[in-house]
TrEMBL record, chain A:
UniProt keyword list: Oxidoreductase
Segments forming a coiled coil: none
SMART domains, per database record: CO_deh_flav_C
Name this polypeptide is given: FAD binding domain-containing protein
One Pfam family here: FAD_binding_5
Source species: Streptomyces pathocidini
Lineage top rank: taxon: Bacteria
Membrane-spanning segments: none
InterPro entries: CO_DH_flav_C, CO_DH_flav_C_dom_sf, Diverse_Substr_Oxidored, FAD-bd_PCMH, FAD-bd_PCMH-like_sf, FAD-bd_PCMH_sub1, FAD-bd_PCMH_sub2, Mopterin_DH_FAD-bd
PANTHER family with a match to the protein in the record: OXIDOREDUCTASE, XANTHINE DEHYDROGENASE SUBUNIT C-RELATED
Domain FAD-binding PCMH-type: 1-223
SUPFAM superfamilies named among the record's database cross-references: CO dehydrogenase flavoprotein C-terminal domain-like (SSF55447), FAD-binding/transporter-associated domain-like (SSF56176)
Automatic annotation (TrEMBL), chain B:
Gene3D superfamilies associated with the record: 3.10.20.30, [2Fe-2S]-binding domain
Keywords, sorted A to Z: Iron, Metal-binding, Oxidoreductase
Chain residue ranges for the region called Disordered: 1-26
Every 2Fe-2S ferredoxin-type domain range: 24-100
InterPro entries reported in the protein's UniProt record: 2Fe-2S-bd (IPR002888), 2Fe-2S-bd_dom_sf (IPR036884), 2Fe-2S_ferredoxin-like_sf (IPR036010), 2Fe-2S_ferredoxin-type (IPR001041), 2Fe2S_fd_BS (IPR006058), Aldehyde_Oxdr_Iron-Sulfur (IPR052914), Beta-grasp_dom_sf (IPR012675)
Pfam families to which the protein is assigned, alphabetical: Fer2 (PF00111), Fer2_2 (PF01799)
Taxonomic lineage: Bacteria, Bacillati, Actinomycetota, Actinomycetes, Kitasatosporales
Protein name as annotated: (2Fe-2S)-binding protein
Sequence ranges of Basic and acidic residues compositional bias: 10-20
């Protein structure tokens, strides 16, 4: 592990100024990505600015019905928050199905948005990887790609976005609030916050170096009170998703009045299943329609021979999530 | 990106105290005792405990956050010492398995692990015990399914899981009585 310097910032402006001033600096929140990848030589900061003392850990309802979650709120605190559990069960479930109890106590919501992919080529500093070292190639496409993405892929990168809670937040169209070096603030729509790999897989977010996530704002989404997060993985717990589905559904007389659907484990970014949602709105809540909606969403999938199973798995997971909600038993 | 930035600019340095990369003096409160040590900022809490403070209870299984053998408590939470930098614990209270016993008497969870034979090689055990103590405080030991899920961050390659759950149940039920 390479040497680093360490500094603890007391306020946001100081932390932002310190990181902005120097491309070799990085924020340190829970450290569950940063310290891990520093040790693997995948991330190579020289200076860490500890932001854990910044007052950014509250969870506050807003006058317009939104919920503002501070960037330093821990996964475990957000999952346990009564308002989160009541208004957005899919968020609480996505968090509690992620990582382990210990990691959830450490990991912050801002850090979760910024966590890096689990692709084993990315995590191995000796391998070529377009995300880590642009232009070196993507060995996953011809190599071991069982865990890789089938949606949003490019010929330069097929790494799966690993976050669970970001899938729920994509379904809910959350906004990511940031602060930059000139104290200017910005609010990104969730869809704008995660970039497709395209020909620049090294760029995962539109953030400037040193731009600090201050909060995640979840809008009022009444349908989300009946929602769930379904996660399918190789072992029952403490594992990333092969496929996951965040779903919310409301029916009026057997017809779908409102629906939210997003996928994890199968895409290069948290994947809002917009095509499926469009198909479902106004449709009769029945299995055939759920199946058709899932097919529509997955029609653009580009699997490799090794991860082709994910298309069928995602199809079935979407149908199961929607049926569970339609049958009135959100998990 | 292998950018090797210059040291922080003067303006930032005035506002923020940069320490390292060489060894710096750090004071940690561990098991109720103030301990001073000289470490580089890159040193994890796990290495600080094991290599500098002679507290080898917390184990290094993976050093990547995937096994739970290094579980300790920082303030009132169970965390992974391998992914925690020691310097981030200044001003916080660290508790390791060595700090569980009180007045020479083992903690109820330690006694239960012995009584229920909740280990074979014992390598994962300090992490399991630290996690189990926190589990009961967190209130997630309602039934076996819940214990399983909320203890999933502690792997045991000897697969002592049924006995570990028995130990947790016995402390839980002892508490209820
Ligand atoms: C073994 C293991 C299993 C895991 N399993 C899961 C899982 O099942 N599901 C899941 O969703 N996640 C999982 N994770 C990932 C985990 O959720 C993330 O590592 C965590 O959320 C990152 O948050 P952190 O606070 O620790 O961030 P850090 O590691 O401190 O930071 C991560 C990155 O974000 C930057 N950063 C941090 N905070 C901010 C901010 N406020 N503004 C701008 N940049 C910032 C840092 O500079 C760094 O580059 C797992 C991790 C491990 C190690
Ligand atoms: S050594 Fe820390 S989790 Fe394995
Ligand atoms: S007792 Fe051997 S690893 Fe758990």
């Amino acid at each position: 592990m390479r040497p680093i310097t360490y500094a603890r910032a007391a306020d946001a402006a100081t932390a932002i100024a310190a990181v902005s001033a120097d491309p070799g600096s990085a924020f340190l929140a829970g450290g569950t990505t940063e310290v891990d990848l520093l040790r693997q030589n995948v991330l190579t900061p020289r200076h860490l600015i500890d932001i854990n003392d910044l007052p950014l850990n509250s969870i506050e309802p807003q006058p317009d019905g939104a919920l503002r979650i501070g960037a330093l709120a821990r996964m475990s605190d957000v999952a346990a928050d009564p308002l989160v559990r009541e208004r957005y069960p899919m968020i609480a479930q996505a968090l509690e199905l992620g990582a382990s109890a210990q990691l959830r106590h450490m990991a912050s919501m801002g850090g979760n948005m910024m966590q890096r992919v689990r692709c084993s080529y990315f995590r191995d500093a000796e391998s070529p990887c377009n995300k880590r070292e642009p232009g070196t190639g993507c060995p996953a496409i011809e190599g071991v790609s069982r865990g890789h993405a089938v949606l949003g892929v490019s010929e330069h990168c097929v790494a799966t976005h690993p976050s669970d809670v970001a899938v729920a937040l994509a379904a809910l169209q959350a906004r990511v609030h940031t602060q930059g070096p000139g104290e200017e603030t910005h609010a990104y729509a969730f869809d704008d916050f995660f970039l497709l790999p395209g020909s620049t897989p090294d760029r995962e977010h539109p953030l400037a170096h040193g731009e600090l996530i201050t909060a995640i704002e979840v809008p009022a989404v009444p349908v989300a009170r009946r929602s769930l997060y379904l996660k399918v993985r190789d072992r029952e717990s403490y594992e990333f998703a092969l496929v996951s589905v965040a779903a919310a559904l409301s029916l009026v007389d057997g017809t779908i009045a409102d629906v939210r659907l997003a996928l994890g484990g199968v895409a290069t970014r948290p994947w809002r299943a917009m095509h499926a949602e469009d198909f479902l709105i106004g449709a009769v809540a029945q299995r055939a329609n759920f199946e058709q909606a899932a097919r529509v969403e997955l029609s653009t999938a580009r699997p490799t021979p090794m991860n082709a199973f994910k298309v069928e798995l995602a199809q079935r997971a979407m149908v199961r999530a929607l049926e569970t909600l339609a049958n009135g038993s959100p998990a | 990106m292998s950018a090797q930035g210059p040291a922080l600019g003067e303006r930032q340095r005035a506002a923020i105290e940069e320490r390292g990369p060489g060894p710096v003096g750090v004071t940690l409160s561990v098991n109720g005792e103030e301990r001073s040590l000289e470490i580089e900022p890159r040193v994890s809490l796990l290495d600080a405990l094991r290599e500098h403070l002679e507290l080898t209870g917390a184990k290094k299984g993976c050093d990547q956050g995937t096994c739970g053998a290094c579980t300790v408590r920082v303030d009132d939470r169970r965390v992974l010492a391998c992914l925690t930098l020691a310097m981030t614990c200044e001003g916080r209270e660290v508790t390791t398995v060595e700090g569980l016993a009180e007045h020479g008497e083992l903690h109820a969870m330690q006694r239960a692990f012995i009584a229920e034979d909740a280990f074979q090689c014992g390598y994962c055990t300090p992490g399991q015990i630290m996690s189990a103590v926190a589990l009961l405080e967190e209130g997630h030991a309602g039934d076996d399914a819940e214990i399983k899920e909320w203890m999933s961050g502690n792997l045991c390659r000897c697969a002592a899981y049924p006995h570990i759950r028995a130990a947790i149940r016995s402390v839980r039920d002892g508490q209820r009585r």
